[in-house]
Every structure is written in structure tokens, then in C-alpha cells.
Amino acid sequence: MKKRLAVLLILLLCLPALAQAYTGSYGGSTLFTFSYDSGRFRMDQDSYLGGNRSNQVWFFMLYDSDYTIDCGMFVNESTQSMSNGDTSALSLYLAGYYARYGASSQGTCTINGQGYALFSLSGVSTGGSYLAATVINGCVVTFEIYSPSAGAVDAGALSTLKTVLAGCYPAG
Fold it and tell me: In this structure, what DSSP letter does residue 172 have?
């Protein structure tokens, strides 16, 4: 019994070491905090920073042997009037915004109290992806998952994306 308790205690102490955190900010304000399993994923926060513009920001990419997940945000006049987590207005807007990528709605979901619009995108260079987007303080924060090795994504990718979203906590 004491050995089991000792092993459990060691495992519990190691769990925080596997979780890494990131803070997404825009215009001097925090939009969200994000935790992820560093035992599974690696994070790249540098590769695409040079492409950031005043209204479009790339935050990071997570990757493992199966998937890559890009996180970024954009803001414009249309999105600034949207309420936090408003999946109805966001879904309509994104259907048009991503139409050139073969956007197909996959419905919505709510994770950590935040609403996300879900889309599959077929006309992308990766062969297909899933996108989850939410509105935070007028900014559209996106998480896009794709598989560089397999090309087209499957239902497992959407499941992985939702699992990763459980680590996103909007500020405020």
C-alpha cells in the first residue's frame, strides 16, 4: 500500500512538468492562456512571427508525429462587433471568409465555456484540415489541425483538435 501511494505521489508531482503554458496577447491585452501536453506535443513560437501584421497574428504551432496545429488570430471591422464566443455570427462570417478553401461547417462546440465554430477545409495546400475558431474581444482566434504526413485529415484529427482546445482559457 505504501509503495502504491508513493508511486501515485510521484506521478502527481510529474504531471505539472508535462503541462506547458502559453499566453496569447494582442494590442497589449491578453486574449487567452493555453496549456498543452508537452509529453505529446512540441511547440514552435518562432517560425512564422515574421509574417505577423497589425491585424493578423500567428501565435504558435503544436506538432507531434501525426498532426500540426496552428494557432493565430485576425481582427477586422466585421469581427470587432462580434460578442465573445458568438458562434452564430462567427459561423456565417467564416463560411464566406474561408469559402476559397472549400469551407464546410462541422457545427459548433463549447469548451471551457467558450463557443467554437468548426469547419473542414479542403482547398488547402496540406490536403485538408479542420478549423476551430472563436471570438475573444473582437478577435477571431483560430486553431487549425492538419496532417503533413497523411495529407487528408480524418475524424481522429477533429477529436484531437477538441482535446487540445480543452487547454484554451479565454482571458477575463
Answer: -
Q: How far apart are CA 50 and CA 4, in angstroms?
A: 50
Order of all β-strands in the sheet with 139-146: 42-44, 56-63, 68-74, 139-146, 129-136, 114-121, 104-111
**pTM for this one?**
0.85
Buried b (16+ CB within 10 A) or exposed e, 43-82: beeeeeeeeeeeeebbbbbbeeeebbbbbbbbbeeebeeb
Least confident of 60-64, 84-88, 159-163: 84-88
Residue type, position 81, single letter? S
Q: In what order do the strands lie in the sheet with 29-37?
A: 19-26, 29-37, 168-170
Round the CA-based radius of gyration of the chain to a whole number and report it. 17
Query: Above 70 in pLDDT, residue 37?
Result: yes
